[in-house]
Structure formats: C-alpha cells, structure tokens
Predict the structure.
Amino acid sequence: MKHSCLLTLNLAALLLAGCSSTPPSTVDTGPIRANSYSFIAGGVQRDAPDFADRRQQVHTLIQDSITQNLGGRGLSRLDSGGDIIVAYLVVVGNNASTEAISTYFGYGRDEAALAEKAHAAYTSNDNPNRFEAGTLLIDIIDGKTNKLLKRSFVVRPLLRNPTAEVQASRVQEAVDAALKDLRLAR
C-alpha cells in the first residue's frame, strides 16, 4: 500500500507541475526582490464551533510556518501590502473525492482547475486501498503588479488524528519543502 500511495502522490505532483494556467516560462524568472510580505486577504470565515471545523487552526499553522520560513530569510510580515503577497491553496483528497480550500488563495486564479488536476491525480490509480493526501500550493505574487512570480507545491499523505506537535512539525516541513527553491534578493 505504501508503494502505491507514493506512486499516486508522485502522479499528483507531476500533474500539478504541468498546470496550464501558469506556464513555467512565465514564473520563477529569477530572484525576487522583497523586504516584506503579506498574505492574501482571506474570504468570509464561517462561524462554526471548534469541534465542527478546524480549518482556521490549519490556516494558522500554515501561516505561522510560512512566517517562520520567510522571517528566517529576513522578510517582515505586514497585515496588508508588502513587496510580495503570499497566496496558498490547500487541496485534500482520497480515492473518491477532493476538496479545495481556497480561503487564502484569492479570486480568479484557477483554483478550480488546480483542484481538478489534483482530483484526477488522486483518483487515477486503480489501487483499492484507501488513502488520503493533501497538496499545499503556494504562490508568490508581486505586491504592485499582481504578477505571479513563483508557484510551488508539495503533496503529502495525511495522518489520522496527529498530535498538535506532529501536525505543526509536518506543516512546517511541507512549507519549507514548498519554499526551498524560493530565491530572494534584497
């Protein structure tokens, strides 16, 4: 089962890498000049009890991990504005269904097409064993022109009921992996 799960995750990575919405030649054109960043403004938050929906906890983990990564590179986080804007899309799926969580991805940026590519990758394997996987896609956007400067992603198997420490560690590892090739100039 482990081998087929890894095969599925690798397939998801290959499919997302080939997203037609942003050809590789127009993204990642060199070091990004930035001293500060902000996150894309999140959408309307649902009022749900903590036991019903843990999305905000996950968003906090992701944003804290991105803040740690970019802060370690000398960038300052701002509430809004900034030289660059960080947007991210979370896609979770299994053998049967996929859900895109685009609260901090913005509008009009092909999130539906990206989620469909992840779904196709997650469900293309004939393996009857159940699996759950997650994709974290991070976009770095120019704060003045709104031009996409860098798109990166990671795909990881999801754990059932991890401890808070394990979850925070795995999110940090995923963010660090997604941003490992980000080149910054000051």
Q: What stands out?
A: The chain has one domain: 2-185.
